[in-house]
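user: can you give me the structure for this one chain? tokens are fine.
assistant: on it. calling the predictor now.
[tool input]
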Amino acid sequence: MPPAIAGTAEAGEGPPPGVRGPVAWLRRNLFSNVFDTTLTLLLGAALLAVVPKLFAWAFLDSVWTAGDPAQCRDIAGACWAVIAEKHRVILFGTYRYDQQWRGVAVIALVVVLSGASMVRRLWPWPMAAAWLVAFPTVIVLMRGGVLGLVPVPTTEWGGLPLTIILFLGSVVGGLPLAVLLALGRRSKMPVIRALCVGFIEITRGVPLLTVLFMASMMMPLFLPASWTVDQVLRATLGMALFFAAYAAEIVRGGLQAIPRGQFEAAGSLGLGYWRTTLLIVLPQALRIVLPPLVSDIIRAFKNTSVVLILGLFDLLGATSAALSDPLWTNYYAEAYLVVAAIYFAFCYAMSRYGQSLERRLNARRNF
């Protein structure tokens, strides 16, 4: 074996100095060349000019306790007192004041189950069963009328619980339909393919508001006079159809990425169309399109704010209603910042979970 060359690192030694550590990271990512160095210095100067003022506005010169709005008129900072004063309206809308604990229970239930869904050992059947039980539980909690709960009509639902219900309904109802539409668009039967293509293209070619108006205003015209469909249910149905049309194209992209050899291998084993699709093709397709599918799910969560046009006071609509009080209407920036933080928390959690699931599936695939 040739002798070690002078100056080279021996086995077991760490990397040369300057390769790792905070200084090396700064040099590699922020000061690697003249352009990066100039951009870093400019951004640093902008942050030094903005961040201290923003910190003073948000914390040092702000008012936090609820009370007379006159206390906010003579300050230079934020008036977080509007949140302390209007937080119930923002979070629960017009839901009955003495029953708002049910809205808290709905939020807690969804947050706990979402956290439990990140535990891989609980998948697939325990978490699937938990979510199947959770959705009707949420409806029972909000609607009442059973188990001694006071009935609350859906016209009084609002705030964050309504946003969660609309989101869960649109995704839970829209994702299976999206898979069927994607499979139907690739079908060899002309009628099935034409119907799926027509639904997808028409739905994707109009705004979400149009779909919601059709579901809310036109649906009752096609039903018998004795049938009544709840407004929340109609809005959820419209959002589910809209989500399904977009998600179907994402799933179809994953189906097209599956090599033809997968189908031929399944056929050689004697597997029929549905067994091949459910056991071999669809799991691989969903794994391929997981990043864009998660993005579409996040978009569906944010799209719930559109239902305000139908008279439903979701989180954003309830905030607008809370700010209609002339005593607090001037402090809309603080209220909308808090609402933005709530939206960001939910969307960021879904994004991180999607990334974690993608890494786990890729690791199993490589293994």
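assistant: here you go. The CA atoms of residues 67 and 81 lie 7 Å apart. Residues 4-9 have pLDDT under 50 and may be disordered.
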